[in-house]
Write a structure and sequence with these properties.
By secondary structure, the chain is mainly β. It is built from two helices and 59 strands. Strand 52 and strand 53 form a beta hairpin. The protein starts with a helix and ends with a strand.
């Protein structure tokens, strides 16, 4: 590049009058003549009438010839670099040794031989820039550029002093597609840009040392964010973006409320039967009178028991007036009602000392005359906070959010995930297992009357309410979004974009019963990685070791029956 500039300068030097001449210098040589070249940096100093244009290179205190040495070592020396050169601020002081070099990228000039006011373009990716008014191009070291003209594509490894020297196939309006460093090993993927430091710079949403994958929470060929309203989706570069888990308003985790509900103000309200643990963790322990059962729920102790053991429910402490049952350690029996004469009072009555008197109508058994003295409530009513209460039509105790437990004759908790309970057939013979959920706490989904963490295989979460698990169509083994959008298919078929097909289309590969999209670098592939390409597209045409690359290495020539990439 520099030789061509100096040659032209020599050719014109003898025929141009002195007042319009220019001095061009490299270390060890200066030439005077006429030139419009602006490549490099202009060096001047007060007291020295001649200024020189320093071409790219290194200059020291011993650099000759004398004029150049005088300028370099002058205490008033200043430097005015052209666009894209280091120390690009005009009139900066000179520090030796001085290196004049183009920053990593490309400089364009309106005329040949780097003449006219230059423009600098830094390392960039896939941002087409018109070069229609460009006469020459200067590339920094270890950089390559891709330019196009119509359907022609040219890779540049060196500067171009005259764009008319480009192959005739590239004639016409030029466009710069990308400028990259050649120092990255392995090369960046098609989405990344190799920087001067030898690392790949990734666009938003991409990650990996070669920008070959999507960052967490991003999906698809362009690594776009998961849809709004999703806390997680089918992400990854071959992902579909299908929402796997919807955003839950005020989930228990948002206010550290393990077994409770978070209010909009961030306060935690424990579910029935739960209270704060001894270490202060909210809703992490069973309240007094409840025990932790094998399902992880806080279940109420048996009647007459003040405190019972986790897992077994065995009563640890009976209430006043009760003693532990000899045959069932979970129960505490009320003291027998016997008159002073030794008569045992039957169920439905109590002893007032001298005789047996009827219990209140609300009681099946009792220790006194009022409804507050009930031991077992009358049929159809249940013990709750010392009183007997009725239930609504679905078995929920009135004045509470507890469910009637016919075995215990009291109001009990239900599964912690349940929000709304329904049992249209509830009666005095019903059990808590017959209760059916019609709503769930935040973070749970509804499946066949139960609240569970996620929809089971063969069902999908209905987008109508984001609550109900609905069965897939018979053609699908698994589905999403709708019953007929198959993720995997029955009868050994393959799922492709929700449809069941017998073979995968181009640009996809078969994996676990589905057709998965190839990496965006590949035209066809054997897997989802960027090094599993089996053929390439026009933008990354070079297939090597499973990778599709934009160019061969410098001094190599790529040739196929359909495409030619000249190396200049």
């Amino acid at each position: 590049m520099l030789g061509s500039i100096l040659t032209v300068s020599l050719a014109f030097g003898a025929s141009v009058v002195a007042q319009s001449s220019t001095v061009l210098c490299v270390a060890g040589q200066c030439l005077q003549g006429y030139s419009n070249t602006t490549l490099g940096a202009t060096l001047s100093a007060s007291g020295i009438s001649t200024e020189v244009l320093l071409l790219p290179g290194q200059y020291t205190s011993s650099t000759n010839p004398q004029l150049l040495n005088d300028l370099l070592t002058s205490s008033s020396a200043t430097l005015s670099p052209s666009s894209g050169f280091a120390n690009s601020t005009a009139n900066t002081s000179v520090t030796l040794p001085l290196t004049v070099q183009l920053q990593p990228g490309i400089a364009t000039y309106p005329k040949s031989l780097y003449s006219g006011e230059g423009s600098y373009i830094s390392l960039s990716q896939n941002s087409s820039t018109s070069l229609s008014n460009t006469g020459s191009l200067a590339l920094s070291g270890n950089v390559w550029a891709e330019v196009t003209a119509g359907s022609s594509r040219v890779i540049l490894w060196n500067s171009v002093p005259d764009v008319s020297q480009l192959p005739t196939t590239a004639s016409g309006s030029l466009s710069l597609v990308k400028v990259e460093s050649s120092t990255c090993s392995p090369p960046c993927s098609g989405s990344g840009v190799c920087t001067a430091s030898g690392t790949c710079s990734c666009p938003s949403g991409f990650s990996g040392s070669s920008c070959e994958q999507c960052a967490s929470g991003h999906y698809g060929q362009s690594c776009q964010p998961c849809p709004s309203g999703c806390t997680s989706c089918d992400d990854g570069i071959s992902g579909t973006g299908r929402c796997l888990k919807t955003t839950v308003s005020n989930p228990p985790s948002s206010c550290n409320c393990i077994n409770g509900q978070c209010g909009s103000n961030g306060q935690c309200s424990c579910l029935p039967g739960w209270t704060s643990a001894s270490n202060g963790t909210q809703c992490a322990a069973c309240a007094t009178g409840y025990f932790l059962d094998s399902s992880g729920n806080c279940e109420i102790c048996q009647l007459g028991c003040a405190q019972c053991a986790d897992s077994s429910g065995d009563c640890i402490t009976c209430k006043t007036g009760y003693t532990q049952d000899a045959n069932d350690r979970t129960k505490c029996d009320a003291a027998s009602q016997t008159t002073s004469g030794g008569t045992a009072c039957p169920d439905g009555s109590y002893s007032n000392g001298t005789s047996c008197q009827p219990c209140a109508p609300e009681c099946q058994t009792c220790t006194g005359s009022t409804s507050n003295n009930c031991v077992i409530c009358a049929s159809g009513t249940y013990s709750f906070n010392g009183s007997c209460v009725q239930t609504n039509s679905v078995g929920v105790c009135e004045g509470s959010s507890l469910i009637a437990n016919n075995n215990k004759h009291e109001c009990d908790t239900w599964w912690i995930q349940m929000h709304i309970v329904s049992d249209t057939k509830f009666n005095v013979a019903s059990t808590t297992n017959q209760a059916q959920c019609t709503g769930c706490l935040p973070g749970y989904v509804l499946y066949q009357g139960s609240c569970i963490g996620s929809c089971p295989s063969g069902t999908f979460l209905s987008p109508t309410d984001n609550l109900t698990c609905t069965a897939c169509d018979s053609s699908c083994s698994t589905c999403a979004g709708s019953a007929s959008y198959c993720l995997t298919c029955a009868n050994s078929m393959l799922a492709s974009n929700g449809q069941c097909v017998s073979s995968c289309p181009s640009n996809t590969f078969s994996s676990s019963g589905a057709c998965v999209t190839c990496h965006p670098d590949c035209a066809t592939c054997s897997g989802s990685a960027f090094n599993q390409c089996t053929s390439c597209n026009q933008t990354l045409p070079v297939l090597t070791n499973g990778r599709c690359l934009a160019t061969c290495s410098q001094n190599q020539y790529f040739d196929t029956t359909t495409s030619h990439l000249p190396i200049l």
